[in-house]
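haha ok so turns out i had the wrong file open the whole time. this is the CORRECT one, sorry everyone. sequence first:
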Amino acid sequence: MSVLMVNDWVDFSEMKGLLEITDGNLASHSNALEKAGYIEVKKEFVGKKPKTSYRVTQSGRQAFNEHLDALEKLLGR
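then structure:
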């Protein structure tokens, strides 16, 4: 989520590289975030190759900010 908070769209390969996770791990987490309505997933073809990209939704942005606020309270800030 933090990657998506500071970028408009991030494609699968870039996200995988930034997070240093497996294809399956990224697919699993992105699926859960999409089902929760926190991210939007765009699937398209560039030439003949499939390309999957992600961006945060407004509700995802709000939920992430609320999560950060809760962590800060927990840490006593």
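Helices lie at 2-5, 12-19, 23-35, 58-74.
again sry for the mixup
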